[in-house]
Amino acid sequence: MQRVLFHSTIFGPIHSRRLGTSLGINLTPDDGKICSFDCLYCEAGFNAQGPGTTGMAPRAEVARLLEEKLAAMSEAGEALDVITFSGNGEPTLHPEFPEIVDDTLRSRDRYFPQAKVSVLTNSTRLGSDAVCAALEKVDNNILKLDSALDGTVRVLDRPNDPGFNAAGVIGRLSRFAGTGIIQTMMLRGEWEGARIDNTSEKEVSALIDAYRRIRPREIMLYSIDRPTPARTLEKIPAAELRAIGDLVAAATSIPVQVN
Length: 259
Hints:
Layout: E1 10-16, E2 20-26, H1 59-75, E3 82-86, H2 97-111, E4 116-121, H3 129-135, E5 140-144, H4 150-156, H5 166-173, E6 181-185, E7 187-191, E8 194-197, H6 201-214, E9 218-222, E10 233-235, H7 238-252, E11 256-258
Parallel strand pairs: 2-3, 3-4, 4-5, 5-6, 6-9, 9-11
Antiparallel strand pairs: 1-2, 7-8, 7-10
């Protein structure tokens, strides 16, 4: 079974194809996975591997470890483009997520004031005002929307909440008009007899309608880059991905980044 990638609370820095030199913050366990989605393409593996034994790192420990790492990088003269909340699951599930964001911004301002703070979220916690207020504070609030069609969301992202639906999340995403960044994984494949393809004309048209409603500051379209737990998924060729990006940009007048 494909398992979690990150075995510490602070990891990297690593090179992100979308964000640059990135220092990661993993708020979920370092030996298991906790997520409100169970995406077929998740590089950290399926939720079936379990939550592990270490639990979510307490706020004070996250702050201490981050402070130590930033201080060491600053003293060594290392470069840093971004501090990214990512890891082995959904960071906004941490009960102290808003407070940890505040701590992170303070440490960033002290050691690397030019660096951005980014959060990669699957958008399942946007019903929480505290979570949304924290997301509004960071430089790059990167929110997942893989499809605007419920059937595809159910098969591809596999939300834990049976009431989760595309229309609801699109409405909540519109709170971040002009500031949020929408990230969409484009792929094709099969899973348990169901065909998956969010690059079809129907899917792209529905996404364009959703992007117009949300009005993010930017759209990120990307495809598979690492091994996926569902081995039947297909990476979208770069030329095709760029063509979709050009179509979306022309239809929405929103900047589109394609990776």
